[in-house]
Amino acid sequence: MVDVHPYGVTAFDYYLNESVYYGTTKSIEPIKCTTESDEEFMKKSRCWTKTALAVDFITQKVYVIDGETEQLNLMDFRGDHLAILMTNLDQPKDVVLDPRRSLMFMLQTSSILQANMDGTEVKTILEDPDLTAITLDHDNARIYYSSSCAIKSVDYIDDWISPVLITMTDDEVSSLAVLDNQLYFVGIFEESGRRSLTSCSIVGNTCKKFQHNVIDPWLASKIQSIKAYDNRKLVPRNPCEWMNAECEHLCVLTNSPRSYTCICSPGYRLNSDQKTCTRIKNYLLYIEDNKIKRSVLEAGEQFLRAVDSSTLIDASALKMKKLISFDYSFDGNFLVYTDYSNMHYADLINGTTWMIKGRVDCGLIPAIDWLSNNLYYARNCQSQNSQLMVRSVSELSASFESDNFLVKFSGHVGALVVHPFRNMIFFTQYSKEFGKYLLHAIHTNGSKYNFGRNIAAYETGLCIDYVDGRLYWLSEDAKKIFYANFDVFEPKAIDIPIISNPRTISAFNDWLYISNLTEIWRVNKETGGDAARAVPVSTSKLKVIHDAKVFRRVLQPIDKHHRQGEIADVDLKLIKR
């Protein structure tokens, strides 16, 4: 028995006769194992919401449904590598595996999906509006599932013959298990909410010889989930055992002649040899709803294709009806985003995140200087003037109290970008005098810099084109985009009539990537023409695109010679708070 007091177990599965893998209700805690005491064990899973968990006992992998991001994740027993097998699931509840046949099944609120264990060949095999539980009878290749106080069964090998009714129940069934033609199910009494464990013998696709209160009623009332195991069966040969089948990251079972496939971790792509992995260095990085997503920027393609979605974003900003802002460091492989008042760091390689808690009455807007590894951020507080603050990105666990103050603003700051080579910060600030947002610039040490005068701008939508040396911003009514060179300030306008209510801009090569609340467009940065959707429109009212930026090395070059200018690098030790 495992004591996780005071936390509860959210999901578990059994590995042969050796150990139990499980997740708890404790926040930011990785998957645990009863035979592993290392605190670093599976730490990359700490940000997942472990709604369901299943163990592949052949290749030693853990499949985990993250209910918050609605995706299916995979991790090896060592915790060295992880993969995202399926995204955009519809309220997933459970995942069950048939490793001997290399198949898996996902229970959603109103459907059951079947797929190979590498996430390929996904298909909906059953639809029902009230699904509550699922289990497999591996010996007979049958799915058992519960719906509307009924337990039904269907064969998943012989062309999906229509489901048969096994039995009706008086109460909702929350969990199922099958072992040796014996069906076990947990019922929840509607009035009291108490639970009971019942079993029956399966004879000719019907339940007979019911046995109620299989275990002590008090213990049964505490049951959340049940699983059945048969350790008498021999474990099939592991095709990944020898040198991980030469897979650089993950060797995963699949329904193919060689029985396995190689999969790469998030941020990597599988090479043509189908074994090694190469880091994806060029893509569009964006936040939709509570997910960080990426779309690969393939040269020569008219449209961009989605690769995967990864990393949990705290959804509190959506509940507060505030939009998330973010910036990233290419060399550091991390992203910083805010959920209005809190600052979050997300590792773009392993998906881990951590948070610095801020004041609930202060909104934050981040901008990263990737050369000096400083994080600048505007702090808009309801009870005081807005401030521009700076901290080292290495101070990941420190509170905001130790950060350094640069300058104070009388009006709300809407957008913020930093130019490390020119030691300059550009931002939009609301002017009470003019009743609109104006464009401003300062040096990174807080001293003023004249860049135009009383230039009206939209609240958001600042962007630096580091290749051509330009600043882009949205017009006051957000119907045009203006840009000007840094050396010669002569603003030029670009019409974007096809894009309604734009909010953010990112520049790369000949293109601008422009996002609004539901989609991301790509247009020519000189003319606004050749418009194409880079990210399709979101059909769900609940999903909002918060921010989008192109992720590429050329946009964050490292050349220390360009840092030798009139304004010296920021030394945080010399800045007075």
From TrEMBL:
PROSITE patterns: EGF_2 (PS01186). This is EGF-like domain-containing protein. GO terms for molecular function: Wnt receptor activity; Wnt-protein binding. InterPro entries: 6-blade_b-propeller_TolB-like, Cueball_EGF_LRP_Nidogen, EGF. Keywords: EGF-like domain, Repeat. PANTHER family: EGF-LIKE DOMAIN-CONTAINING PROTEIN, VITELLOGENIN RECEPTOR-LIKE PROTEIN-RELATED-RELATED. The keyword Manganese does not apply. The keyword Calcium does not apply. One of its GO terms (cellular component) is plasma membrane. Residues 262-277 form the EGF-like domain. Transmembrane segments: none annotated. Pfam families: FXa_inhibition. It comes from the Eukaryota. GO terms for biological process: canonical Wnt signaling pathway.
